[in-house]
Amino acid sequence: MKAPPRLQSLVDEGLIDTVVRQLMSGKEAMVYVVRCGDETRCAKIYKEATNRSFRQAVDYTENRKVKNTRLQRAMAKGTKFGRQATEAAWQSAEVDALYRLAAAGVRVPVPYNFCDGVLLMELVTDADGDAAPRLNDVVFTPEDARRHHATLLTEVVRMLCAGVVHGDLSEFNVLLAADGPVIIDLPQAVDAAGNNHAKRMLLRDVDNLKNFFGQFAPDLLRTRYGEEMWGLYERGELDTASVLTGVFRQASGPVDLGGVLREVDDARDEEAARRLRMATR
């Protein structure tokens, strides 16, 4: 097919040889299958902020810094230049997260290049060599549901040990490759230690996996892996070899009612935003 305008510069520079077809169009980007020499890869073209349904919520961008103080001031003021800088930082967040997680051994698409707002990365495939389906397009046996759920919990732990929380993990952001699940879509990833909302996002990510796979293996619905995982992380006891049980007992003590109410309000806002994103997929 003819190269879209956003990919033409990569073709001109020899980073892409040909554009095969459009793979998908999502809330934040369009993805194309491309040929690079002898390899088939995918090219993710980020949509402008005004043309996508997923907004750069302050919960996700909290504590994201840029080294240039001029850029920081412009981004804080929301000037045209600042909005452009914010958009660039949002796009590069996924690139940074992919390289960081790939280095940590997390099952994410291998990133190859980032140029002119286009991310070149591995094309995740199924056993037949076709583009791998998302989890929401697959029906599982109870055994397969438990197996893939356990695999993804291991990946979430590995991410957390690398200091990253996905922030929007669900059956829509995991591909089922020939050799198991692969986590995708990371522009909203947050720093586990530097973002005040990281715990809530981690718990929601784990609950999303539990609720999805729990449709096929109802025993998973009784587990509390997220709370157990975060408790170990807070105590500095979590590592990639940690054995999780799915059992969590809340420590007794005074209740911070104000904090609880804030968490309820935040959760309500996040659920409304999640429903909006799902409606536009």
UniProtKB/TrEMBL annotation:
<keyword id="KW-0723">Serine/threonine-protein kinase</keyword>
<keyword id="KW-0067">ATP-binding</keyword>
<keyword id="KW-0808">Transferase</keyword>
<protein>
    <recommendedName>
        <fullName>non-specific serine/threonine protein kinase</fullName>
        <ecNumber>2.7.11.1</ecNumber>
    </recommendedName>
</protein>
<feature type="domain" description="RIO kinase">
    <location>
        <begin position="7"/>
        <end position="234"/>
    </location>
</feature>
<dbReference type="InterPro" id="IPR000687">
    <property type="entry name" value="RIO_kinase"/>
</dbReference>
<dbReference type="InterPro" id="IPR018935">
    <property type="entry name" value="RIO_kinase_CS"/>
</dbReference>
<dbReference type="Pfam" id="PF01163">
    <property type="entry name" value="RIO1"/>
</dbReference>
<dbReference type="InterPro" id="IPR051272">
    <property type="entry name" value="RIO-type_Ser/Thr_kinase"/>
</dbReference>
<keyword id="KW-0460">Magnesium</keyword>
<keyword id="KW-0418">Kinase</keyword>
<dbReference type="InterPro" id="IPR011009">
    <property type="entry name" value="Kinase-like_dom_sf"/>
</dbReference>
<keyword id="KW-0547">Nucleotide-binding</keyword>
<dbReference type="InterPro" id="IPR018934">
    <property type="entry name" value="RIO_dom"/>
</dbReference>
<dbReference type="InterPro" id="IPR048148">
    <property type="entry name" value="Prot_kin_PA4780"/>
</dbReference>
<dbReference type="GO" id="GO:0004674">
    <property type="term" value="F:protein serine/threonine kinase activity"/>
</dbReference>
<comment type="similarity">
    <text>Belongs to the protein kinase superfamily. RIO-type Ser/Thr kinase family.</text>
</comment>
<keyword id="KW-0479">Metal-binding</keyword>
